[in-house]
Amino acid sequence: MRVLLLGGTTEGAALARALADDARFQATLSLAGVTRAPRPQPLPTRIGGFGGVEGLAAYLRDERIEALLDATHPFAAQMTRNAAAAAGGLPLLRLDRPAWRAQPGDDWHEFPDMPALVESLGETPRRIFLTIGRKELAPFQAAPWHHYVVRSVDPPPPGLLPPHATLITATGPFALDDELALLRGHRIALVATKNSGGAATEAKLQAARRLGLPMRLLARPLPPPGLAVVHDVAAALAWLHDLAERGA
Questions:
Q1: Model confidence over 120-162: pLDDT tens digits?
Q2: Contact (CB, 8 A) for 45 and 30
Q3: What is the 8-class DSSP label of residue 39?
Q4: pTM of the model
Q5: Which own/partner pairs from 193-196 qualify as long-range (CB within 8 Å, at least 24 positions apart)?
Q6: Residue 44 C-alpha from the chain's centroid
């Protein structure tokens, strides 16, 4: 079965490994190219966009794809919408890892967009640990009185950084002890991030919880209506195996 896997996440990498070891599938992994040096994967890999819905639909048709699996980042909303629009009658599944949840006693608030999150930071200068991706830093320039400790996989363009910022480039997973040391060492007063879910970067929230720090999160975008969604790699593989057995 010819499968297109839209990846770029830990779950996408796990699926790539599983499909590479299964002779029933002839799979191709697609990466958006956001990360400059992605880790090698055991599947044939294409990097870059498709050219919108029409380009993706043409690729699916030209490559005779029989199943489409979307394991992109929870905030890659445009790609998920494009996949839903391009699939037509093709079997399509979205793997969306569970979101993080507040625990009793947390000072935890979620916001629908980045400007609302920035406004919630207030006017009293604070030291803020910021992990929201290198492309979405511009709204924080509206609150230049804070000092931001910005962590991203790749360096952001200099023009996007807030005026008072310390940049850390690093790739998860991150250990709890290291996150505690980072928050203490930089005298962080608040953690701002996206509700991406997953274990690889959850330790920053555990560390903030242990230190009693407030947490401000960007809420996830909603998936397109009617899109089939599972929440773990095992369920996605079961879906693919069922398709293969039925000869879809």
A1: 999 999 999 999 988 889 999 999 999 999 999 889 987 889 9
A2: yes
A3: P
A4: 0.87
A5: 193/130, 193/131, 193/132, 193/217, 193/218, 194/74, 194/75, 194/131, 194/132, 194/133, 194/218, 194/220, 195/74, 195/99, 195/100, 195/110, 195/219, 195/220, 196/73, 196/74, 196/75, 196/100
A6: 22
Using the Cα atoms of residue 76, residue 143, residue 131 and residue 100 in order, give the sign of their dihedral.
negative
pLDDT in tens, 21-30: 898 999 999 9
DSSP label at residue 214: -
Q: How far apart are CA 189 and CA 207, in angstroms?
A: 12
Q: Tell me the per-residue pLDDT of 19-59, one tens digit each, with 9 for 90 and over.
A: 998 989 999 999 987 666 667 788 899 998 899 999 999 99
Among 172, 170, 174, 168, which residue's Cα sits nearest to residue 203?
A: 174
Which domains are assigned to the chain? 2-98+222-246 (3.40.50.720), 108-218 (3.40.50.720)
